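Figure caption, in words: inputs first, then the predicted bound structure.
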Amino acid sequence: MSESLHPRAMGTARERVDGWAKVTGTAPYAYEHRVPDPAYLHPVQSTVARGRVTEVDARAATALDGVLTVLTPFNAPRLRRDADPELAVLQSDEVWFRGQLVAAVVAETPEIARQAADLVRVAYEVRPHDVTLSADRADLYKPDVVNPKHPTDTLTGDPDTAFASASRAVDATYTTAMYHNNPMEPHTTVALWHGGNASPALTLYDSTQGVHPLRDAVAALFELSPDRIRVVSPYVGGGFGSKGMPHAHVALTALAATRVEGRAVKFAVTRQQMFSFVGYRTPTIQRMRLAADADGRLTGISNDVVELTSRYKEFAEQTGLPTRTMYAAPHRRTTHRLAALDLSVPSWMRAPGECPGMFAPEVAMDELAEACGLDPIELRIRNEPERDPESGMPYSTRNFVACLTEGARWFGWDSRPRLPRSTLDGDWWVGTGVAGSTYPVLRRPGSAWASVRYRADADRGRYEVSIGAADLGTGAWTVLTQIAADALDVSPDDIEVRIGDSDLPRAPVAGGSSGTTNWGSAVVAAARRFRDKYGFTPTDGDEFAATMPDDGHAERFAMAAYGAQFAEVRVNVYTGEIRVPRLLGVFAVGRVINPRTARSQLVGGMTMGLSMALHETSVLDERLGFVVNHDLAEYHIATCADVPSVEARWIAEEDPYPNPMGSKGIGEIGIVGTAAAIANAVYHATGIRVRDLPITNDKVFEPALVV
Ligand code: MOS
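Bound structure (dioxothiomolybdenum(VI) ion present):
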C-alpha cells in the first residue's frame, strides 16, 4: 500500500485554476494560437461509400485567386508506407467510406479554401457498399482482442445448461444506437513546418486529449524522431474520447503544411465534418441471458455482443466487460463479434464498453427482478460478488450496495409502487427506475512523468509543477494543483501547474478516467522525491522529476468505481412524450479531490446518459452509406430544458490502493447505467419494455397508454 497523502487542499471545492482565463476569453484553444500569416485548409470528402478515386480535376480550384495548393491522392507527399490506415490520408485512391478525406485545398482565407474545395471535381469508380449491421450476417468475425486488449470471449462453467434448467430466466436482445461525440469545441489542427534543420521541425496546435500520444503518432507517420515535433494544447473544449487518438484531419493538416513550409496551416473541422472521420460509438446488439433460482440468485449470466468496425481498420468495443464483473454467478459467458462495414472506423466515446455494455445487463436485471417478484435493488444486493468474478481477486473497495441503499433513501425509493403502470398524474404516467454503474480504475505506473521546480523569486506559484497532461474542461489544471499542494505540503497558491505541451514531461492520454491517477501519482512521486532531496528550504532552480512507481496493487486487487443511478420519468398518455424530471446518481469513487469539478463530471456524464437514452442517434442512410442527421439541429443532444434535475452524490470511501490520493476515476462512470435506469423507469411508468435505444415516443406510444 502506498503512503497516502494528508489531504488539506484535496477535498476542497477550489475554483478552477483556468476559470478566469476561460470566462474572459483569454484561454487559447487550438485555433486561436497566434501564428503569423496562417493559411487555411478545407477538405474534399468522398461522395461515395466504396470505390476508387479515378481522377481529381483541380483546375477550377487552382485558378481561384488565393488558392495556394490542392492536394490529391495523386500528388500528395508520401507518408510512411505502413502507416495507421486511419491516418494514411491521400496515400491511395481507395475509398473506404462516404465522407473520407480525398483532397484538400490550402488557401489564403478559410472562405477561399471552402469555395475552392467545392470546385474540385472528383471522379470515382463506384463499388457496391454495405453498411448494414445485423446479428445474422454470415460474415461476422471474432476479433483477436477487444479494446484495448481484453480477451474477446470469456467462458466459466456451463451457462447453457444453467439457462436450460433455470427456475427464473431472462433471454432478450437489447440494442444501442450509433452515437457521435460532439464536444463543444470541434476538432482543430494547426500545423507549422519550420523548415531546414529547425528544431522542432513541426509545431502542432491541436485540440487533443494527449499531447505525447499525438506527437508520437505524427512522428511515426512522417518518420521523424518524436523530439522534432512539438504539440501544444493547453485548453481543450471537450473530447469524450474523440480527441483521444489522432484522426485523419491531423495527418491531413500536417501533410498539407509541408507544401507551404514556414507558414502555419489551420484546419478547423466543421460540425458536419465531425460526423465523418473523428470516430463514433458503434451500435451494439446484445443478446443478454440471465438464469436465477427462485430466490433471485443468479446461476448464469451471458452477453453475446454484435457490433461494427470499418473494413480498413479495426476497433472492437469491449461491450461485454460489465457482464464479466458486475454480478456473481457460477456460469458465465461473454462474446464479441464484428461486422466490418464500409463506414469510418468507430472509436472511443465516454465509457466505451461500459456504457453500452451496462444497458443490456441492467435492463435485464430489472426484468429478472419482476420475474422473481423482487425489488430490483434487493435482486442486485443478493447477487453482490465477494470477489471479482472475472479475476477472482478481492476488491480494493466495492461499495455498490452502499450506493444502492443510500441512493434509495435519498431518492425516496420506499414509496415506489411495486407494479408498473400504477401512477397516473394528470396526462402523465409516472414511474421510477434504478440501474447499477461501474467503471474500472485504469492505471499505468511509469506512464506519466512530472517535475517539480522551485523558483525563489516568484510571489505566487513558487513551485512549478510540469506534466504533459490535458485538461478537456474536466478540472485537471485544478486538481493537479491541489494534489501538488498536499504532496509538497504548501498552499495551492504556491503551486503553478504547467500542462498541455509535449515539451513538458511525458504523460499518457486523458482517457479511461485515468488521467488523475496517472498524472497525480507522478506529481506525488516527484514532490516526495523533491522534498527528500531538497527538504523545505530549496534554492532557486532546484528540480526533481519522477514517475508513478509500480506498486503491484493491480495484480492483487480488482479496482473499480461503482454507482447507482435512479430516474423518475413521466410519459404522456396522448403523445408518448417522455420527460425525466429527476435523475439521482450515487457514486463510490474513492476520495473526491475537488467536489466542484467532480460534481460537474458526474452530472455531465449523467446528462450525456439521459441524452443517449432519449435523444441521440446517428441515422445511417444505408443507400448512401452515411449519417444524414449530421448537425446539431437534427442530432439532438439534451439541452437544459431536457434535464430539470440531475443530482450527483457520493458516499465516503477510503481506498488506498488506486493511487496515493485515494481517488478513483470520475470522468466516465456518470454515463454508465443512466440509460438503463431511464428505460427501467419508462417500464415502471407504462408497463412497456423498451430494449432498443434511444427510447423515442414511437416506441412507447400505443393507444393503450390512453386511459
Ligand atoms: Mo474516454 S472515451 O476514455 O476519452
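Residues 179 and 394 are 35 Å apart (CA to CA).
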